[in-house]
Amino acid sequence: MIHIDMDAFYASVEQRDDPSLRGRPVAVGGSRERGVVAAASYEARTFGVRSAMPSVTARRKCPDLVFVKPRFDVYKAVSSQIRAIFAEHTPVIEPLSLDEAYLDVTENLQGIRSATTIAELIRARIREVTGLTASAGVSYNKFLAKLASDHRKPDGLFVITPAMGAEFVEALPVGRFHGVGPATAAKMERLGIRTGADLRDCPLGFLQEHFGKSGPYYFGISRGIDQRPVRADRIRKSVGAENTFAADLFQTDEMRAALEPILDKVWRACESSGFRGRTVTLKIKYADFRQITRSQSVLLPVASRSEMEGIAFRLLHDRPLDSRGVRLLGVSLSALTGSDAPGEAGAAQFALPF
């Protein structure tokens, strides 16, 4: 299996297309004072700037940071070029996002016997076609391939063989493991689990007691074992949009007006895909960065933008809002179904775009 991950994808596209940005710390998204960083160039990362960081924090860490408005149509077009390169080698592609995917090349289209050779060819072709660099990890399962692609970023290639797998995992901090987020890593820390070796020493029953259905997964990966296949039909669970405002909103009338373009964007995505959803979720982030969500599910898929708007507005008015002001609003639609799917709602799956 191969895991391909583009290097600082959004920021690298911007630096490719604007030579004046090359070699400079770049943040895609946000602004000098408001919003959130969507992506950061490697030059910015040396200052500690990361994706999902508030713009004001990023600016404080890197005073020379250049903020660039995202161009998602461009990123999607480049992503399509990359996906076409993958398809030259295998149809078994599991996209995770616009810039990242797993490939199963066990039976590849060109009959190449070495996955490492295929990874090298893909990286070279990506550079030739797009002018961008990609990192690749090669291993015998998805978990290790993901770890391998991170190991020599940027523009790197690393292979974890079956003989290396368990030993490679035991030395890593659990926070580096795909599937272990910050909250889980903090819980593991409280339980004295700091490395792969610590995790491996935990009995399965202990992991199930503390981590529920994720326990067997953690038990396996601590030993370099991951049975998950590469799924070419990986589903999308929701579609949504959000906006961070230049000034905090305090009045519900302001918030209703601010939700209109967000609802438009979500419904356009539904119209273009032909899919609908049964659960509307309203996301609210306050001025102090505290975040809440409110959701409502309906029996049948939401049939119109006006119906989605009505639900979103009811969620907005459901309970009083914090008096400190709202800096971000978002709307998402989940429990997705296909408009032409047979049978009951929920029978269809929504394929992730790449």
From TrEMBL:
GO terms for cellular component: cytosol. Keywords: Cytoplasm, DNA damage, DNA repair, DNA replication, DNA-binding, DNA-directed DNA polymerase, Magnesium, Metal-binding, Mutator protein, Nucleotidyltransferase, Transferase. It comes from the Bacteria. Gene3D superfamilies: 3.30.70.270, 3.40.1170.60, 5' to 3' exonuclease, C-terminal subdomain (1.10.150.20), DNA polymerase, Y-family, little finger domain (3.30.1490.100). Binds 2 magnesium ions per subunit. One of its GO terms (biological process) is DNA-templated DNA replication. It catalyses: DNA(n) + a 2'-deoxyribonucleoside 5'-triphosphate = DNA(n+1) + diphosphate. Its EC number is 2.7.7.7. Its main location: cytoplasm. Residues 1-181 form the UmuC domain. GO terms for molecular function: damaged DNA binding; DNA-directed DNA polymerase activity; magnesium ion binding. Its cofactor is Mg(2+). The record marks 10 as: Substrate discrimination. Mg(2+) binds at residues 5, 99. Pfam families: IMS (PF00817), IMS_C (PF11799), IMS_HHH_1 (PF21999). It is found in: Cytoplasm. Poorly processive, error-prone DNA polymerase involved in untargeted mutagenesis. Copies undamaged DNA at stalled replication forks, which arise in vivo from mismatched or misaligned primer ends. These misaligned primers can be extended by PolIV. Exhibits no 3'-5' exonuclease (proofreading) activity. May be involved in translesional synthesis, in conjunction with the beta clamp from PolIII. Monomer. Belongs to the DNA polymerase type-Y family. This is DNA polymerase IV.
